[in-house]
């Protein structure tokens, strides 16, 4: 059974970097048939897909327009996890952040969510 | 970006009643439309993928239909645990997008 366990700070100061990790159990982060994703949810923006990484003989990633240039997703094969880094955060980045697995069955496994507040 | 519009915003029903939720896409998503259920404080849970396929462990009272731009999630007879918010999501195009949700509440 695949499970995702999120970790990371819940309070981030404006202009600083938000860093979250998603530890994977039950499948390899390097699996060729899945995509690893970050999604956030806020009252103002609803559910918002942020970006993804996946392995298809090499690693690929891409990002939503709203965070491109500020966001990086990295996979760590030694720890079987992937991470999110979002730079130069503002209060607009306050949200619940989720990691999720995407397969042909859509987003079928989700992390528990992390409530992140951007505030001084 | 594909915009998904869900209706109604809120559906007030009693246990045992039938619920029909709508999701309309701004352009065709073929059959690559999924439905999720979310309860307070929880992550969304996948119910339906590719418009009409139930995810593992999802009860048969949940069914999905549609293709192209118009989709429906039907709950044949509401159980107490079905009162929640439901979202549709398309995976035909990047970026993936979600609808704004329909809340099914107890009448």
Explain what this protein looks like in three dimensions:
The complex is a heterodimer of chains A (120) and B (107). Chain A is mainly β and 120 residues long. Chain A has strands at 3-7, 11-12, 18-25, 35-42, 46-55, 59-63, 71-76, 81-86, 95-103, 106-110, 114-118. In chain A, the strands form two sheets. In chain A, strands 2, 4, 5, 6, 9, 10 and 11 form a seven-stranded mixed β-sheet that branches. In chain A, a hairpin with a 2-residue loop joins strand 9 (95-103) and strand 10. The model of chain B has no long low-confidence stretch (mean pLDDT 98). Chain B is built from no helices and eleven strands. In chain B, strands 2, 4, 5, 6, 9, 10 and 11 form a seven-stranded mixed β-sheet that branches. Chain B is globular.
Overall geometric form of chain B: globular
Shape of chain A: globular
Query: Could you spell the SSE succession of chain A in H and E letters?
Result: EEEEEEEEEEE
What's the alpha carbon Rg of chain A, rounded to whole Å?
A: 14 Å
Tell me about the largest β-sheet of chain B.
Answer: 7 strands, mixed
| Uncertain regions spanning at least 5 consecutive residues of chain A | none
Cα-atom radius of gyration of chain B: 13 Å
Structural class of chain B: mainly beta
**Count of helical stretches of chain B:** 0
The oligomeric state of the chains shown is heterodimer
Largest sheet of chain A: 7 strands, mixed
Most extensive interface between two protein chains, with residue counts: A-B, 20 and 21 residues
């Amino acid at each position: 059974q695949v499970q995702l366990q999120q970790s990371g700070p819940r309070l981030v100061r404006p202009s600083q970097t938000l860093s979250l990790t998603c530890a994977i159990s039950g499948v390899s982060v390097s699996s060729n048939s899945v995509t690893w994703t970050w999604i956030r949810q806020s009252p103002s923006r609803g559910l918002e897909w942020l970006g993804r990484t996946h392995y298809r003989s090499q690693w690929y990633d891409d990002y939503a327009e709203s965070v491109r240039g500020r966001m990086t997703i990295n996979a760590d094969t030694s720890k079987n996890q992937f991470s999110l880094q979002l730079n130069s955060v503002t209060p607009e980045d306050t949200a619940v952040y989720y990691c999720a697995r995407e397969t042909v069955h859509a987003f079928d496994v989700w992390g528990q969510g992390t409530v992140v507040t951007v505030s001084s | 970006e594909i915009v998904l519009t869900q209706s109604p915003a809120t559906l007030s029903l009693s246990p045992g009643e039938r619920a029909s939720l709508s999701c309309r896409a701004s352009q065709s998503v073929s059959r690559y439309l999924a439905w999720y259920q979310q309860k307070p404080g929880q992550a969304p849970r996948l119910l339906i993928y590719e418009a009409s396929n139930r995810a593992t462990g999802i009860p048969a009272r949940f069914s999905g239909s549609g293709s192209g731009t118009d989709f429906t999630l039907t709950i044949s007879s509401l159980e107490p645990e079905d009162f929640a918010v439901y979202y549709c999501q398309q995976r035909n195009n990047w970026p993936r997008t979600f609808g704004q949700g329909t809340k099914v509440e107890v009448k």
